[in-house]
Amino acid sequence: MTSTDIVNMSARPLRLFIACIIWIALSACSSSGGYLPEPASLNAFEPQVQLVKNWSVSVGGNADVAEFTIQPVLLGNAVFAASGKDFRSVSPDTGQVNWQLEFDAPVTAGIGYVDEQLFVATRNGRLIALSGVDGSILWQVNTSSEALSAPQANSEIAVVQTVDGKVSAYAVEDGKLQWSYAANLPSLTLRGTSTPLVNEVYTYAGFASGKLVALDNQTGSVIWQKSISAAKGRSDIERLIDIDGALILVDGLLYVTSYQGNIAAIDALTGTTIWQQPVSSINGATLVGDAVLVVDAQDIVLAYDRKLGHVLWQNDALKYRLLSTPMGLDDQVLVVDAQGYAHLLQLEDGEFLGRQKLGINGARIGSKSYQDTIFLLSQDGRLTRLGLK
To answer: Residue 239 has what pLDDT?
Structure first.
């Protein structure tokens, strides 16, 4: 089972101790006994397509903030990326830096956007809005705690979810707090939060309790709430059921995954479960065509029919290679492992189509898919554009 950082809401030394214990407890033992499972060996195959690295550029960053996964964003004629305290606007065609700025604290969450306005959260508990045109700071406010998932926005509000279990909405125009919702969290949670999903009417958010809520954008009041997973077992570790990663909303259905729980399709208006299947995932899901793609806790790639919920296929040839969230690339599926290998799978059956060593650190990689192009942001601060040949 893939290891992951764990947070206990107490002193830092205790957090580190618990993280070490859970690293061992959550990982299956190898044949040699007591060690993390060996990553699956890569079997040779005849590639049918070839990935192309169009360009790669450094956007800053350092090892001190390697735990954070920041998603790059393509808006108009610029790709925006952040790493460490650094923020860059980059040409999507050439990788040339248009402009850059440096914050006074490392970026821990981003990048959110609406129109030409961008949003990031920093380690010192700040939500910052900046112009996508020239990088000027439009406003900044203190949040209730640290944010580890990208702020999300519509035309009126920017929403940030923080590690203390709060979802807060701020006016896009000036950063004034509009409302805040607080969830009850278990004593032990995974290191991370769900990325809220915001449309013009509702904000949807998942929590470490395994609950999914729909909030009214005007008042922050609960429209409905739903338990995606129920805690099982006796120990706090066995009862971890966090909803992490991004939520997906397509054709009125919300797709959500949880750790040691389920993947589910939920009616976005009523909270009714349309279908659900047992799976353990901390990465969230991706929709490619009519398939919902998930990497589970053992790094098995699964594809579910998005309307009926049955498993279309699964690929277990990359177990324990610490895979990224699946990405769509020209109606195919791309995952990147911790050793920097990019694996291209056929959407129809999950068979391998291509593989390439990217020469980047593949752990905790941020990614954004745009049809036939993917932008990757590695934890060492390299932004890479990939395509197909």
So the answer is: 45
Local structure of 93: helix, strand or coil: coil
**In the chain, what is the straight-line distance between the N-terminal and C-terminal CA atoms, in Å?**
34
Helix H or strand E segment including 12 = helix 12-25
pTM (global) more than 0.85: yes
Contact 131, 147 (CB under 8 A): no
User: SS3 of 25, please?
Assistant: helix
Given this model, what pLDDT does residue 60 score?
A: 83
Per-residue model confidence as pLDDT tens digits over 126-136: 999 999 999 99
Domains of the chain: 6-388 (2.130.10.10)
* Separation of alpha carbons 208 and 182, rounded Å: 12
* Calpha distance 179→105 (Å, rounded): 26
Task: Output Rg (C-alpha) for the chain, integer angstroms.
Answer: 20
pLDDT of residue 273 exceeding 60, the answer is yes
Q: How many residues are recorded in the chain?
A: 389
pLDDT value of residue 191: 53
- Indicate the helix (H) or strand (E) that contains 137: strand 137-142
- What's the pLDDT at 370? 84
| Other CB atoms within 10 A of residue 95 CB | 16
Average pLDDT score over residue span 69-95: 94
Q: With CA atoms as reference, report the closest residue to 194 among 137, 249, 148, 236.
A: 148
DSSP per position, 343-364: EEEETTT--EEEEEE-SS--TT
- Kindly provide the b/e burial profile for residues 34-44, where b requires at least 16 CB atoms within 10 angstroms of the residue's own CB: eebbeeeeeee
**Which neighbouring-strand residues pair with 334?**
327, 344
